[in-house]
Design goal:
mainly alpha
């Protein structure tokens, strides 16, 4: 985890420590919006059964796609920071020679 002093120093990145929190926040939002879309589709079925069905299916697909893409983006961010750490280690090895 990170400490409060890390907020005022530039030696260490804090994003890798908090990216998991943001990931779960995004997942919660995706699911809430998806449930809202499902209820909207179910209510729309009273007016237009086909339109409501399409809206409901679209909301379910949106939940799945949102979860998958949020995971991909979170992993991408973590990979970028990990690459930075590895490049720093390689640079430090070259300085000791």
């Amino acid at each position: 985890m990170f400490e409060v002093s890390d907020l005022f120093q530039w030696d260490r990145f804090i994003a890798p420590a908090i990216i998991k929190s943001f990931y779960w926040l995004v997942i919660a939002l995706v699911i809430l919006f998806g449930i809202s879309g499902i209820f909207t589709g179910l209510l729309q079925m009273a007016i237009s059964p086909f339109g409501g069905f399409i809206t409901t299916i679209s909301a379910i697909i949106g939940i799945v796609v949102g979860v998958v893409f949020s995971r991909i983006i979170a992993e991408f961010i973590l990979i970028v920071f990990r690459i930075n750490e590895h490049l720093g280690a390689i640079r430090n090895q070259g300085e000791h020679r």
